[in-house]
Specification:
It is a single chain. By secondary structure, the protein is mainly alpha-helical. Helices cover 72% and strands 4% of the residues. It has helices spanning 3-32, 47-78, 83-92, 98-131, 139-170, 175-202, 211-224, 260-265, 268-283, 286-308, 312-316, 325-340, 344-365, 368-381, 390-396, 402-413, and strands spanning 205-207, 231-234, 245-248, 255-259. A hairpin with a 6-residue loop joins strand 3 (245-248) and strand 4 (255-259). Helix 1 crosses helix 15 (390-396) and helix 4 runs parallel beside helix 12. The relative contact order is 0.13.
Length: 419
């Protein structure tokens, strides 16, 4: 066994063990606190809603463990099991050019992987989400979304893969710099284009019609010095009763989007506070910071790929007999999550810090009590657990736990420490 094969298998085993351990900790912690609503929410959330959130969270965690086992098995089948090598040899037998062979190889692996994961998507939507009263989609809509996603992948993804493979084959030793520049240009274009051209393919977006609410929002935007194409309402209720709000795009395509389900459950004060929080992400430069971090990480990633693809052991130790640019690319994409899993708490911590900063901005520009009330409604309506395990939360949660977040808002409102 090659030493890199042993390292790879060790990381796979360690990742699986830690993920299962964290999942069980989360289940145990949620169940241990399911009988009693936390004091901070005792007068705001009914015990029945608390039970529902606990059951929903644990059900998703148990499905996640099944998915983990399935995905891990297929990762090993694709790599040391020789799956990628078989697909590569099959396409190579047709005698196509290196570029066409590479495109066909990557598209085949991607398609097979997507098909293998479809049963879990179906079960998540039509079993779990249905059981807990969230699913609003039909099989027809689900299938149409699937077709639209596949077509977009062909129209957008295939040319991008083709361009990167061409650079890997033709641009010399510095190909990875050009590929990184292409990737960054593509990312910026997608951020700009998504709200105006891609998202409307799946959902209907309309300007907020409520005159009173629109006037309050415009006043808030003016106070914060924020200009955008407007505040939009998306018909999220077509697929789910979950509520959310988000900020998207940049330049002239900046948009603030509310789910229609969210607007139905919040008062005007609460909507204004949620919007102030979303504006906080923009005003505190979180989008720019995330983009810069993504840029730096992708730069390192392309440099690492350029080094690995020149090493014969990289292919042979992962079950691929013939070195090629397309095999290097797909191997790199498949195995990197295994090696980067243990730094995920760093990114979660950064995201939680950004949430705290956005809450602080909302406190300065709206009623913090309305934001707390809105958060409580969101936790209840989305069946989010109020009692996550601290270590599980440290690894995964992009938002601070409910109690910590609300305590933080109350602390800064009273002039105390925001820690």
């Amino acid at each position: 066994m090659h030493i890199f094969t042993a390292i790879f298998l060790s990381f796979v085993a360690a990742t699986v063990v830690v993920r299962l351990w964290l999942s069980q900790r989360q289940i145990n912690h949620i169940q241990a606190h399911a009988a009693r609503v936390p004091d901070a929410f005792a007068d705001r959330i009914a015990l029945t809603d608390h039970h529902r959130a606990a059951n929903y969270s644990c059900t998703k965690l148990r499905l996640g463990r099944v998915i983990l086992g399935w995905e891990t098995a297929w990762l090993l089948i694709w790599t040391i099991g020789g799956g990628l090598n078989w697909v590569d040899q099959w396409w190579s037998g047709f005698g196509y050019s290196a570029l066409l062979t590479g495109i066909a190889f990557i598209c085949s692996v991607t398609l097979i992987t997507a098909i293998l994961n479809l049963p879990f998507s179906l079960y998540q939507t039509f079993a779990i989400e249905e059981r807990f009263g969230f699913n609003q989609t039909t099989l027809k809509t689900w299938l149409l979304d699937l077709v639209k996603t596949a077509l977009l992948s062909l129209i957008i993804g295939v040319p991008l893969v083709a361009a990167i493979l061409w650079l890997m084959n033709q641009a010399g030793d510095r190909w990875w710099i050009y590929a990184w520049l292409l990737w960054m240009a593509f990312s910026l274009i997608m951020i700009w284009a998504y709200p105006a051209f891609i998202a409307p393919i799946f959902n209907k977006f309309s300007q907020l019609e409520d005159a009173s609410m629109r006037a309050r929002i415009e006043a808030l935007l003016n106070r914060c010095g924020f200009q955008s194409q407007g505040v939009f309402v998306v018909d999220g209720s077509r697929r789910s009763s979950h509520g959310n709000a988000y900020f998207t795009g940049f330049g002239r395509n900046k948009r603030i989007v509310f789910y229609d389900t969210l607007l139905e459950s919040l008062s005007e004060d609460e909507v204004e506070a949620v919007l102030a929080h979303e504006l906080g992400h923009f005003k505190r430069n979180h989008i720019k910071k995330s983009l810069l971090l993504s840029s730096a990480l992708s730069f390192v990633g392309f440099a690492l790929l350029a080094w690995l693809m020149r090493s014969g052991w990289f292919y042979s130790s992962l079950g691929v007999e013939a070195a090629s640019t397309h095999a290097a690319l797909i191997l790199f994409v498949m195995i990197m999550p295994v090696f980067t899993y243990f730094i995920s708490p760093l990114f979660s911590a950064m995201s939680r810090k950004h949430e705290f900063e956005a809450d602080e901005f909302a406190h300065l520009n709206s009623d913090y009590r309305a934001l707390i009330s809105a958060l409580v409604n969101l936790y209840r309506d989305n069946a989010s657990t109020l009692t996550p395990d601290p270590i599980h939360s440290m690894f995964y949660d992009s938002h601070p736990p409910a109690t910590i977040r609300i305590n933080h808002l109350e602390a800064i409102a009273s002039g105390g420490s925001a820690d």
